[in-house]
């Protein structure tokens, strides 16, 4: 079964077509679905597998860096709704994930960088050695050695897997995976999901979260600089300086991680450690956005 390319096809319509193809092929409860593609294919095919005849076994073969380090780990599957991304879904663990980094050879550079920001997020969150490896990687990962890429993928998967093993359903610990995502989601939303790749928005969000942490005295100056320059090395990212700060703040408040009107942020306290800070002030977010805008000039 082939599905059309692009996030907008992670939809009910495509899902119905996939169910239809399954029926035409005569798939029964003993069938195994193999999801071959990026995160869009993984989420949609996994959701089809979770729901067709009340559930089939499935195997995931991720072909993008995002899918290798993020969407293939944790068992979340689902589709978008016209009113909201990832609105409809469930948990359905694949029986196996088969990752072959050689698929990345044909991936467009911008998609590779998008995944690299998620790898960097894992490093800042929980893996200092991975952070050092990324610092030594060539700028924008151009021509990174295959074994280094393999190691980075394995490390990033381990970070996410350890967290989701302890907290599969996202009540407590799993929230730390949102490092960089509170601001990142807001940047994506205010630009209609067209300006930034998800990873680029997360890259900006990492700088914002690191700055807030530093401003609160939770993160040292040196660690802040190291994080921000590691993000910039993967860049350049589309600009943020022309965005309306109040629009961004409103989008941050709408984010589902906001509880009781307070802005909850995951903040780094050193490379490899984070805390969940429940009461970040709007003024801090405004200042973080100014710092991010000021950083544009530093990009290549
Ligand atoms: N389930 C989860 O936990 C989870 C986590 C993160 C992201 N996601 C989801 O993943 C999706 C994003 O995934 P993505 O970044 O992989 O996007 P994607 O699946 O749209 O793939 C990006 C682009 O790369 C192309 N492509 C895929 N593999 C290729 C290859 N080897 N060579 C050349 N081109 C290739 C695709 O056709 C597409 O155009 C989003 O829908 C997001 O919600 C899910
Ligand atoms: Zn993400």
Give the SSE order as H and E letters: HEHEHEEEHHHHHHHEEH
Helix content: 40-55%
Which molecules are bound besides the chains? nicotinamide-adenine-dinucleotide, zinc ion
Count the E strands. Answer: 7
Principal-axis shape equals: globular
Determine the oligomeric state from the structure: single chain
Helical segment count: 11
Beta-strand content bin:
5-15%
End-to-end Cα distance: 41 Å
Q: Mean of residue pLDDT? A: 95
Biggest sheet: strand arrangement: 1-2-5
Radius of gyration over all CA atoms, rounded: 19 Å
Structural class by helix and strand composition: alpha/beta
Instruction: Summarize the biggest pleated sheet.
Output: 3 strands, parallel
The low-confidence parts are: none
Question: What does the model show?
Answer:
The protein has 300 residues and is α/β, with parallel strands linked by helices. It has eleven helices and seven strands. It has a three-stranded parallel beta sheet. The protein has a two-stranded antiparallel sheet with strand order 3-4. Strand 3 (76-81) and strand 4 form a beta hairpin. Helix 4 runs antiparallel to helix 9 (221-234) and helix 7 crosses helix 10 (245-254). The longest helix has 21 residues, at 146-166. The protein is globular. It starts with 11 loop residues before the first helix and ends in a 5-residue tail after the last helix. The model has no long low-confidence stretch (mean pLDDT 95). The structure holds nicotinamide-adenine-dinucleotide and zinc ion.
């Amino acid at each position: 079964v082939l599905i059309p390319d692009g996030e907008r096809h992670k939809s009910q319509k495509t899902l119905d077509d996939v169910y239809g193809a399954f029926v035409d092929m005569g798939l029964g409860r003993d069938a195994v679905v193999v999801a071959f593609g990026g995160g869009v294919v993984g989420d949609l095919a996994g959701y089809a597998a979770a729901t067709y005849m009340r559930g089939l076994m499935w195997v995931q073969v991720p072909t993008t860096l995002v899918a290798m380090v993020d969407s293939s780990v944790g068992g979340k599957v689902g589709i978008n709704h016209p009113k909201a991304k990832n609105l409809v879904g469930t948990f359905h663990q694949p029986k196996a994930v088969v990752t072959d980094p050689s698929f990345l050879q044909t991936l467009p550079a911008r998609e590779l960088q998008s995944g690299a920001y998620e790898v960097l997020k894992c490093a800042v969150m929980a893996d200092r050695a991975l952070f050092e490896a990324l610092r030594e990687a060539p700028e924008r990962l151009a021509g990174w050695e295959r074994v280094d890429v393999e190691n980075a993928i394995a490390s990033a998967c381990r970070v996410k897997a350890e967290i989701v093993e302890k907290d599969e359903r996202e009540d407590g610990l799993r929230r730390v995976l949102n490092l960089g995502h509170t601001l990142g989601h807001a940047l994506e939303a205010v630009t209609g999901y067209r300006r930034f790749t998800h990873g680029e928005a997360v890259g900006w969000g990492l700088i914002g979260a690191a700055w807030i942490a530093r401003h609160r005295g939770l993160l040292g100056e040196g660690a802040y600089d190291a994080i921000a320059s590691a993000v910039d090395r993967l860049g350049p990212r589309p600009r943020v300086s022309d965005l309306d700060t109040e629009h961004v703040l409103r989008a941050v408040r709408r984010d589902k991680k906001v509880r009781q009107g307070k802005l909850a942020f995951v903040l780094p306290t050193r490379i490899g450690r984070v805390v969940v800070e429940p009461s970040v002030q709007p003024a801090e977010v405004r200042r973080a956005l100014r710092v991010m805008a000021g950083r544009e000039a530093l990009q290549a």
